[in-house]
Amino acid sequence: MTKDGTSLAVDPIQLISSLFALLPLPVAITDNHGKIILANSSFTDTFAEIGNLDALPHHELEVAGGGTYEIETVPLNDQGLKIAYGVNITNEVLLRRQMVHMEKMAAIGRLVSGVAHELNNPLAGILGYAQLAARADLDPATRRMIDVILVQAERAGKIVQNFLSLAAKNEPKRVAFRLNDIVRNVVQLREYEESVDNIVIRLDLSDDLPPATGDPGQIEQVLLNLVVNAEDAIADVQGQPGVIQIRSAMEDGNIHLSVTDNGSGIRARDMAKIFDPFFTTKDKNSGTGLGLSICAEIVKDHGGELYAWSTYGSGSTFTVEMPVRASAMEEEARPETVGSGESLRGKSILVIDDEVHITELISDVLVRYGAEIEVAGSGVKALERLKDGSYDVVVCDQRMPGLSGQRLYRLVESLNPKLQHRFLFVTGDVVNAQTRRFFTQEGVQYIRKPFRIQDLVDAIEGVLTENQLQGS
C-alpha cells in the first residue's frame, strides 16, 4: 500500500523468498528425513558441508573457523517439513568450559595444598640440618657439598611456595611490593619449561625501581600469563632459538614491565581484538580466549594499562604500565633486624609436631641458644603438657592428625588464655583458606616451612618481646 492508498502488486512468494534469503540467521527447510531442501545464504555459508540434519547432533555443533552452533527445529506443516535455524552459542560454550576449568583448578589447588605440606616437612629437615652442618668447622670439600644442599633445598622450597601462591584464592589487596621480585619468582617457576623448550629468558631489570602498589598475586598472574603466551608463540616458530626478554624500568613517571619474544607474532587484523573476551588465536584445545582479557582487567584495576606491539612473523611485546603511588614512593624499606638469640636463654619452650625430624631439628637449634625444650609428638600429648605446665613459647605445627594446631589453640583458650599469645605456628600450609583466615583473625604469628634457622630464632624472640610488652 502506497501513501496515496493504491496497492502495490507484490508477489508474496517472491517477498517471502527475499526475506528468507536476507535473514542474517542461518535458516533452512528440511523434509521429514532431515534433508535440506532450501537454505538461505547464511546457512550455506556457515554449514557448507551439511546436507542432512538428522545425522548431526543438534547441540554444540562445531563449525571449522565458525564457532559453535546449536541447531533448533520447528514444524512447518503436517507433511513433515521443518524450519531449522542455527544459534551461535560459542560464547556460552567457552564460558561453561572456563567454569569447568576453574573448578578443576580449584580442586588442583586443594591437592597442591596437601602435597606442598608433605613436601615442606622433609624440606624443612633438609634445609635445617644443612644450616646446622654449615656452622661446623668443615673441610673445603664438605663445605661445598653442604652449600649445594642449602642452595638446592632453598630452591625447592621457593618453587613449592610459588605454586602455593598461584593456587591460593586470595582476596585482592593493596600493598607495596617489589615488582622485580615477582619477575624473579615467575622466571624461577618457568625455569624447567624454558630449559626443556630451549628458550632463553633475559632479564633487564631496573635496580632503582620504586615499590609498586597493588595485589602482588594478581600481578604475578598477569606476568605468568604473558610469559606462557610468549612460550606458545615461540613454539609456533621452527628452526630458531627462543628468546624472551623481560624488562622493568621507570618511564614518564610510571613503572613499565615488558615481555618481548621472538615468536610468531600477531596478525595485524587480530591486534584490535586480542584483549576481547573469548578471542584467541590458539586452537580450541589450547586457549579459552580469556587470559589476556583478564590480565587487562587486572592491570586496569591497578590504575594501569596493558598494551601490545607485534610484527607478524617477528615476535611481540606486551607492556604493563602502572602508576607509582605516592605512598609507595614515600615508603622506605625497613632494615632487617637479626636477633642474637640471647633472649632465648633459660626460656621454657614446648615444640609440637607430628614429624619427629622437625621436633628434633627445632630442639637441636634452640638448645644451642640455651633454651629449655620439651617435645610433644601430637596435639593430644601437647594438650596434656599445656594443662600442667607453663611455657614462655609454644612452637606448634598447624596440620597434625587427631588434634590440629588450630583446635589445640582453641582448647588452650579455656585452659590458660595467656598461653594463646605465646603460640608460634610453624607450618607448610598457608594456602588453605581456613588456615589463612585463622591466622588473620587471631593475629597469631607463624613462619613457613622450610625455614631458615635465623627466621625461627627471630620469630621466637618476637613472641617473647610482644609478651613482655603486654605483660603476659
Number of strands: 17
Please compute the radius of gyration using only Cα atoms: 32 Å
- Biggest beta sheet attributes: 5 strands, antiparallel
CATH architecture of the largest domain: 2-Layer Sandwich
As for the number of domains, it is: 3
Question: What keywords describe this structure?
Answer:
472 residues; alpha/beta; Beta-Lactamase; Heat Shock Protein 90; Rossmann fold; 3 domains; 5-stranded antiparallel β-sheet; 5-stranded mixed β-sheet; 15 helices; 21% strand
Short note summarizing the structure:
This protein is of the alpha/beta class and 472 residues long.
Structural write-up:
With 472 residues, the chain is an alpha/beta fold. It has three domains: 14-88, 2-Layer Sandwich (Beta-Lactamase); 191-327, Heat Shock Protein 90 (2-Layer Sandwich); 342-470, Response regulator (Rossmann fold, 3-Layer(aba) Sandwich), CATH 3.40.50.2300. The chain has 15 helices and 17 strands. The chain has helices at 12-22, 41-46, 90-134, 140-167, 179-189, 191-196, 216-235, 291-301, 326-330, 356-368, 379-388, 405-415, 417-420, 433-442, 453-470, and strands at 27-30, 36-39, 61-63, 67-75, 82-88, 175-177, 199-205, 212-214, 242-251, 254-261, 305-311, 315-323, 348-352, 372-376, 393-396, 423-427, 445-448. Strands 2-1-5-4-3 form a five-stranded antiparallel β-sheet. α14 links the parallel β16 and β17. Mean pLDDT is 82; it is low at 328-336.
